[in-house]
Design goal:
CATH class: Mainly Alpha
Number of domains: 1
Shape: elongated
Helix content: 55-70%
Strand content: under 5%
CATH topology: Rna Polymerase Sigma Factor, Chain: A
Oligomer: single chain
């Protein structure tokens, strides 16, 4: 959803939620943390090759580890929380595969993952995949957050123009002048980037 030229700016800020959640007496912050990150951890687990049921199991293990480790987590300037998050998630996925391979009574599970490639959970591969998925995740979340601020037609114009549909076709389809199509798309784009920056400041 974001422009390629904005990648350097995308998610360069961080911290407010993570600073709050380090205080484990703040239950609301932890609930917010789970709301924002649980779905993303699940996406990463699935991309690493886990089926739905196992991914949900591993997500819970990751969250337990984060609950334990977050109070001790320290920010270093230039680092991103999601780098540490992907390391914890990747290690948890590796532990999952090691555990079923050692268990004789889980041969069916081993057969299910017979063609699983361990190279997909090497740290460089995980880091690369997480970076891409994070941009998509934040962009989609931002779009859903701003959607109520616009009519369905305006959102539809933005999405279709972003997918490359000619402005003239959109103008005829919606029944508004070409200049209005540009205005609609620009309004949504500006609000979307604003919301992306806000989410990144809160979550990255």
């Amino acid at each position: 959803m974001t422009d390629k030229n904005n990648n350097d700016e995308f998610c360069n800020t961080r911290e407010t939620l993570l600073i709050r959640v380090k205080n484990q007496h703040d239950e609301n912050s932890w609930e917010d943390f789970v709301f924002y990150y649980k779905k993303f951890i699940y996406i990463i687990c699935r991309r690493m090759g886990l089926n739905h049921h196992d991914a949900e199991e591993v997500v819970q293990k990751v969250l337990l580890k984060l609950w334990d480790k977050l109070p001790k987590f320290e920010y270093n300037k230039g680092d991103r929380f999601r780098g540490w998050l992907c390391m914890v998630t990747g290690n948890t996925v590796k532990d999952f595969f090691r555990s079923y391979k050692r268990a004789e009574d889980r041969k069916i599970k081993a057969a299910e993952y017979e063609h699983w490639n361990p190279e997909i959970v090497t740290q460089p591969a995980v880091n690369k995949m997480v970076s891409k998925e994070w941009e998509n995740y934040i962009s989609n979340m931002a779009l859903e957050n701003i959607r109520p601020k616009f009519s369905d037609n305006v959102i539809d114009v933005f999405l279709k123009s972003n997918q490359g549909k000619p402005v003239k076709e959109l103008s005829e389809e919606i029944g508004v002048p070409v200049n209005t199509i540009y205005v609609y798309a620009k309004r949504v784009k500006n609000k979307l980037h604003e919301e992306i920056r806000r989410l990144c400041q809160e979550l990255d």
